[in-house]
Amino acid sequence: MAWIYLLIGSLFEIGWAIGLKMSDGFSKPLITSITVVLILLSFYCFTKALKEIDIGTGYAIFTGIGAAGTAIVGMTFLGDSANLGKVFFIALLITGIIGLKLSASKGILQEEENKGTSSEQESEEVMTPQEVEIG
Amino acid sequence: MAWVFLVLAGIGEMTGMLFLKLSDGFSKVKPTIGAITAACFSFYFLSLSLIHLPVGTAYGIWTGIGSAGTVLIGMLFFKESAHLKRVFFIGCIVAGVVGLKFVS
């Protein structure tokens, strides 16, 4: 459930990041109000998630989804330029988010380091060095 | 000046995260007040910086400072794992967030 809260909070975050830009330094009342509501919703969900998830992990995933999402929305709807570099960093973000999620889930399962469920296999492929698992 | 505002916003973010974790889901009063104060501080300065900087740039730097700082706070104050795998993936996210700035 904590991870669901984290995901929902991240989606609200994309909304307020866009709203923040459109509010021109909080000078437009309607957009500012919507932005503030989204910020509150986003942090409510995030705090719920933090009861179970490590703060470093939770925050990285929260902002990672927010950053990737904001860039995608910017390129798709707000006329921001799209280029290979952006796509690369968005891919890097998604790699980090998925990898961190999988290794965090493993942590919850009492660090069964070398058991290798199917989800762990995936994260190992991204990660590569085998000695990390052993050491 | 926009960059100074941005750094202040990043520091506010780290502080806010520390209090947010301490607030235990907004159930403890003092850390909750601390978290809200730090968040207002952070958003205010982020918003000021956004007047002069593109959203991708400002957001990238802000979260770069915030997430790297928050990971350190987690390790220092809450004894969170410094396992290589965890640091690697968090590094991917921080690099991705900040990298987006340089290509925006």
* Percent strand of chain B: under 5%
The percent of residues in helical segments of chain B reads over 70%
> What is the CA-based Rg of chain B, rounded?
14 Å
**Which quaternary structure do these chains form?**
heterodimer
Euclidean distance between termini CA atoms of chain B: 20 Å
Q: How would you describe what is shown here?
A:
The complex is a heterodimer of chains A (135) and B (104). With 135 residues, chain A is an all-alpha fold. Chain A is built from six helices and no strands. Chain A has one domain (2-134). Helices cover 78% and strands 0% of the residues of chain A. In chain A, α1 crosses α3. Mean pLDDT of chain A is 80; it is low at 108-135. Chain B has one domain. Chain B is mainly alpha-helical and 104 residues long. Chain B is built from four helices and no strands. Chain B has helices at residues 2-22, 29-52, 55-78, 84-103. In chain B, α1 runs antiparallel to α2 and α1 runs parallel beside α3 (55-78). The chains are: A mainly alpha (135), B mainly alpha (104). At the A-B interface, α1, α2, α3 and α4 of A face α1, α2, α3 and α4 of B.
Give a topology summary.
The complex is a heterodimer of chains A (135) and B (104).
Chain A: H1 2-22, H2 29-50, H3 55-77, H4 84-108, H5 118-127, H6 131-134
Helix pairs in contact in A: 1-2, 1-3, 3-4, 4-5
Chain B: H1 2-22, H2 29-52, H3 55-78, H4 84-103
Helix pairs in contact in B: 1-2, 1-3, 3-4
Quick summary:
The complex is a heterodimer of chains A (135) and B (104). Chain A is 78% helix and 0% strand.
Labels describing this entry:
heterodimer; A: mainly alpha; about 80% helix; B: about 100 residues; flat
